[in-house]
Amino acid sequence: MRTLRYGHGDNRWTAGTCFFIPWSKLGVDNDMSQTDHYSGHSIWLTDVVELPGSKLPLSTVPAALLTLGPIPLALTALFFYLADGGTDPYLVIVQFLAAFIAVVGPVFIWHYDENVFPTFIEEVSDVVADHEKLIQTVDRYESFFAKRYWPLTVVWTALIVVALVANLGFFRSLGVTGLLDPAFLTYLVFAVWWSIITGIGLHGALTTILCVRSVGNLDLTIDPLHHDGLGGLSTVGYFSIRATLMNSIGSFALPLAFAIAAAGSYQTLVYLAVGTYIGFIIVSFVYPTLYVNRRAQEVRESVLKQKRRQIQQLREQASVDSAGGELSELETQLKIRTLRDDFHEYRSVNLYPLSVSILTRLASSILLPIGFTLLETYVISG
């Protein structure tokens, strides 16, 4: 489990890693008071993913893929072995596509838990004035992600299990005799594990939305000279798109969902679910970025209003100081010109947290489920 401290104390973690390095050991003096701390919270699945890496001579991701990854694949293979109705090659392919989600899903969740949150704190500190409140806010929502995952996950898992039982006709076509058939029970075990993984992923998207909204309510600052060209707000876009990409992997289950619906005659319900799923992917990205954009607009208007007032005051002062000599008037005009340049920089900066990289990732996360839907509608169903 991670124990990070991030802030103005003697210890800071290095960018892009989850390792904790004491600055005192690097010979760096830091006289700032140690008031801001980021302790970090880990969901139980993170500990499960990290366990194989602590026992094997491999890093976390390969060790997890080699030990946890085969579980859904083995359950899928066992299901087809126990079923007596033969194996349709198409159904085998789409089932293994769905199982792939449970293979890589734990690693995605581990990455979100262990890397995305700490990186967000480091990057978004450029646009939040009060670092202590920022760390408290993000720390609170990472705790929410780690501890409050179960309501959404339980409901999601129950819905998946009920849907499978209601579509027993699909499994009968594969040779399953009933609810107590060992093959069907094996599939239910697979479905529960799959639902837990995907349910935590959905909870991660919800956590991102709530976290960005709370961060947006803090005192934001805009840096017109920030290297991202977006006033420093691109970090919000990256934070949102990482959660969106984590859930877009669920698109690999769409062909299986279509196959189950076709056998159970619930096509309208499935397409409604697919539309809802695609909508959820879009909302999980668009809502946080739009909300922060609106808050940044409010901050910019406040800054511009203040600079207008300062310029007006200097103009009034210039008319008074003109009798004091050319040097005093020149100094005032230089101050006015500086303020006008700052005014134009703030007014021209793009405050919507989108870059080419973010847009590319968003397009891929949306096109994936849409592509599977079109493939089923116009190619397979023909």
Task: Give a verbal description of the structure.
A hairpin with a 6-residue loop joins β1 (11-13) and β2 (20-22). α1 (44-55) crosses α2 (60-67), α4 (89-124) packs parallel to α8 (182-216) and α9 packs parallel to α13 (356-380). The protein has a two-stranded antiparallel ribbon with strand order 1-2. Residues 3-36 have low confidence and may be disordered. It has helices at 44-55, 60-67, 70-82, 89-124, 131-147, 150-166, 168-172, 182-216, 234-248, 254-264, 267-321, 326-348, 356-380; strands spanning 11-13, 20-22. The protein is built from 13 helices and 2 strands, in the order ββααααααααααααα. It is elongated and about 95 Å long. With 382 residues, it is mostly helical.
Outline type: elongated
| Residue-averaged pLDDT | 78
Q: Give the radius of gyration.
A: 27 Å
Proportion of residues in β-strands: under 5%
Following the backbone from N to C, one meets helices and strands in this order, namely EEHHHHHHHHHHHHH
Estimate the helix proportion, in percent: over 70%
Structural class: mainly alpha
**Poorly predicted tracts of residues:** 3-36
What quaternary form is this?
single chain
Overall number of strands:
2
Strand order of the largest sheet: 1-2
